[in-house]
Amino acid sequence: MPARVVLGVGAGIAAYKACELLRLLTESGSRVRVVPTADALRFVGEVTWAALSGEPVTTQPWTGVEDVPHVRLGQEADLVVVAPATADLMARAAAGMADDLLTATLLTARCPVLFAPAMHTEMWEHPATQANVALLRHRGAIVLDPAVGRLTGKDSGAGRLPEPAEIFALATHLLTRGHPGTRPARDNDLAGRRVVVSAGGTREEIDPVRFIGNWSSGLQGYALARTAIARGAEVTLVAANVSLSDPAGAKVVRVTSAREMHDAVMAAAATAAAVVMAAAVADYRPATRHQAKLKKDGTGQAPEPIHLVENPDILAALATRRTAASKTGNEQVLVGFAAETDTSPQAAKAKLARKGCDLLVVNPVGNGLGFGTADNEAVVYRADGSVTEIPRGPKEALADVVWDLVACNLKLSVTPVNPDKIHRKLPGLIEGVSTWRVVCSHLSR
Ligand code: CTP
Question: Which domains does the chain have, with CATH numbers?
Answer without folding.
Answer: 4-178 (3.40.50.1950), 194-443 (3.40.50.10300)
